[in-house]
Model the fold of this input.
Amino acid sequence: MGFRNLQAFNLALLAKQGWRILSNPNSLLAKVYKAKYFPYDDILNAKLGSNPSYAWRSIYNSLEVIRKGTRWRVGNGKRIHIWEDKWLPTPSTHKVISTPRDFDDFPMVSSLIDANSKWWKPDLVKALFLQSEASEILKIPLNLNLPEDSLIWLGNRRGSFLVKSAYYVAKELVEFEAACASSSNHLASPFWKKIWHVNAPPKIKIFAWRVCLDALPTMLNLRRRGLNTAGFCQICDKELESISHALFHCNHAKQTWSCWSDCPVNLYSPTCDFIDITSQIMEKGSSSDLGLLLMVTWSIWGIGTMPFIMMLAALLLKFGRLLKGFHKINVDGATNNNGNHSSIRVIIRDHTGATIDALNKSLPSAFPAPTIEAFALLQGVLFAVEMGLTRVIFESDDLALIQAVNSNENGGDLGHILQDIKAQALVFNWSIFQHLKRDGNKAAHELARDAKLTGHSRTWKGVSPPFIHQILIEDML
Ligand SMILES: [Zn+2]
Done:
């Protein structure tokens, strides 16, 4: 399986024991531990105790892996704390982001569920949570028997514990702890607190920590360590590759940063290093600015040797965030049930996720699905050209189409349309075509459904059609 971090692997194995106790509370093993260490609670809230056995101490230490790798599935909601626990299906943190409200002495999810109708209390949910979060909560399915709440493992679809996925959770924990432990000696702790709390994957925070310690293998650092190199930047070959050069001053880095037009600080000051810049962003910017700074820095370093375009593409793909001046174009196609016509739809959004244009068009006859999808993509490209957009991402849920556009093939019965798409796309300064799973293309789908019902074409200029507002907001989160 290629486990490289032994400590993390051990932790994952121990977490498996913990998971067994948690998921089989009636087993002998669970009963023994429960009687001694958590008689009135479940294992995740257990205390280490005054004289713990070696086995229990080991399991106890691994519980954080379970906390990190799971979320609650709502049964009756009695065990789930609304504001503290992870229970939303949203993939980011699974926690509620709406501001906590004091509405009840009993802030458990069960108070949001109507015991009679066995369903959510929609008015209460809408009053307590942000609109998008409320609509997400109201979509969480409930079992009419209101069973006990249960923890599900996030690493796989079946929700079951696998050592392999636990290993990845454990590895991040181990690295994160190592980083925290060593950082506490090095720098003022408010600085690190902000870094550790930024909304970014742990590997990016660890990267930031390494940058601060000047621990990246830049050419200059390699030279210092006695490697046979002159220390010059391998990309521009003009200057010594220090961390500041690699991340901020080299041309390819500058090109990337130039997309961040509302950056609150000067990123190119020759006297500022990464720590200075980060501190300034903490002072002058928002926490999302700090997150963006770390993510972009990470991507510049990680793929610095690739062309600028590829770097940006990878950044966008990884974090689903658009930099200013970029547009995302979702395209989709559908056939109506009578089979006498098909329709395509295009939605153009700016970097904030706001719809700036939408187009819905009926085609004269019912084409096969791959053809409609290809027409939809071509229409999207033409629409973007017409609007004068320069940096664009096209998204379609037709994987084969996206693969074909990104390859050199122009054969097959759709080859001429592919050719057309590629030729038109040459106009853009920057463009990528990417596959989007059906969920993510919901807004375009809704437009498709609308076209199906009405059977005619519509264009919205400058506003998004009202019925897709909610979906657009959800897509943005
Ligand atoms: Zn350079």
Remarks:
- The radius of gyration is 26 Å.
